[in-house]
Amino acid sequence: MSRPPYPFAQRQDIVDVLHGHRVADPYRWLEERGDDTERWMAAQEELFRKAVDGLPGRDRLRRRLGELLGAGSVGSPVWRGERRFFTRRAGGQEHPVLYTVDPDGTERVLVDPMAIDPEGTTTLDSWIPDKEGRRLAYKVSQGGDEESRLYVIDVATGEHVEGPIDRTRHASLSWLPGGEAYYYVRRLPADAVPAGEDQYHRRVYLHRVGTDPDTDDVLIFGDGLDKTNYYSVAVSRDGRWLTVTAAQGTAPRNDLWLADLASSPAERPELKPVQVGVDASTWLHVGRDGRAYVFTDRDAPRSRLCVTDPADPGYETWRDLIPQDDEAVLTDYAVLDGPEPGGRAVLLAGWTRHAISEITVHDLATGERIGRVPTPGLGSIGGIVERPEGGHEAWFGYTDNVTPSTVLRYDARTGETTTWATAPGAVDVPPIEARQVTYESYDGTPVRMLVLARPGGGDGPRPTILYGYGGFNISLTPAYSASILAWVEAGGVYAIANLRGGSEEGEQWHRAGMRDRKQNVFDDFHAAAERLIADGVTAPDRLAISGGSNGGLLVGAALTQRPDLYRAVLCSAPLLDMVRYERFGLGETWTDEYGSAAVPEELEWLLSYSPYHHVREGTAYPAVLFTVFDSDTRVDPLHARKMCAALQHATSRDFAEAPVLLRNETQVGHAARSVSRSVELMTDTLSFLAAQTGLALDGGA
């Protein structure tokens, strides 16, 4: 066997004794970015480039990915009177740009990330106009760090009114009428909390535009509550009602409070509990009709919409408007209460039925279903947008496997759906055949999987990528993807499994794949692979698996549990050391999803599957490519570094047959990135998987 010299990685004799378990950690030194780690990473990058840069078909693949991404994107409009705001990315742009359209029809740029930073490392994180559309708050981050900085601009002039305000990562914001003040969420300064915990300890504040946020902000809520709480704030359109929610990390439950600002001052709102200490997620919005609309999974794991009186919003007063559906998951709603004088006010309800989106129409007063909103196909619908002042129109985003982002408009007077805006770039999309397969997991649970291939398929097993996520209540629904299209166009198959842990079948589906039930997710994934093989779609020597973040944990567990089942693995920004994950990045906020090593029983769960701790010497592991991002502040790249070193030491496979590689990228983080960087990443990862599974990227199948 010829093994090139993998970069030397010292194995240290480090063993922690945790609740009676001896837990080895031979590569702990790779947690730190010291000189030894930097040298090791530089050698890994050199090895990666030697292994990947010369693979066939890369130039053609790079060009095709650029063409497919040239479709660009467009977002749904947000209305303030006759002014609207939206994002759009033209084919040649690196990032989406925020625009406004004035009442006279003039379109203007408000925020262009490339104008802020021509290097392309600045991303627009979020934006929200005030209730009159005169001012707009937006947040940007740089280098992928996601540490948002908040600014306010005058919409008419584009001039900055204030900013930057730091420590606003994951910070909700809601304007009071008039545009002179807003409630928002901000972290405490580092010197106000224990060392190493400055990313937590959030509070809700009232901020008046133009004042010093460090000295003049008024503390509204959060003092003394859990330091990992995420807060959300919202003010009703008329400015009367303030809602505040709090959730511990990513836990699937929240507490909810409501204040009547007509009877208590904005600086001291009298927040009264609506839901506290209940194992459910609930959101409340006071509508134009004065009713409180309550969106909740309380006693309804597929969610329901209730109404109540905001003056008496207790649970016993809730009345179902849209009850839980036995098969579909309620995801969104919009109120159209002004079709025309004397017309019938309606409510639109957004659903996903086995990961496919639909919208139904209901009588607003009774909730009776009276129709359905036409959509172009079996795809995914974005948020349903209405005019704040009411009306008969709604807008929503739409995409599917061959349709770039599109904005559709629904007219309640006619019942018609029309295309309002399309992605600006022209693109030649290859034909794709999509079929949804239902298969049984190991415990008999039916699981669904979307299988994408060229029409007519082909004879014999084909190179296949199986993708999954399975966590945090996130649903995998059809969407336009340049990487999927390029892979299928070249003759490969792409399969997306809707594993437990996601939200495809509601909150029970999520909870069936979290904490002590996490193995269900891995079993669902293995069963998906076995179904693809049994159906003749692929074979173990032609099957690759792919996942990122929590999906990186998924494929990390898959490759250690069933190394015989997979030929290649793409593991991106992964969690892999589940014993120490809480200590790094945002790990402390995820203990409700996974469990905590500080709790004896929960350590047992984590040790049962933690990929880093299940690497065994002398095992024939698949080819593996880890991709990590230097500025990732969610999942620390140390996970991939340690796992890469462990696999390089342990695998019995020849390097030429099944290399274990690490790709590290600087000036990007966990999520948003420029188009050109996306093209390079996809070129590297797809060419690696193609080489391992036998897919020809140079024109052959």
UniProtKB/TrEMBL annotation:
Keywords (A to Z) from UniProt: Hydrolase, Protease, Serine protease
Enzyme nomenclature, EC number: 3.4.21.26
Domain spans labelled Peptidase S9A N-terminal: 8-421
Pfam families membership: Peptidase_S9, Peptidase_S9_N
SUPFAM superfamilies hit by this protein: alpha/beta-Hydrolases, Peptidase/esterase 'gauge' domain
Catalytic activity: Hydrolysis of Pro-|-Xaa >> Ala-|-Xaa in oligopeptides
All residue ranges annotated as the Peptidase S9 prolyl oligopeptidase catalytic domain in the record: 480-694
PROSITE patterns: PRO_ENDOPEP_SER (PS00708)
Protein family according to the UniProt entry: Belongs to the peptidase S9A family.
Protein name per Swiss-Prot or TrEMBL: prolyl oligopeptidase
Organism in which the protein naturally occurs: Actinomadura keratinilytica
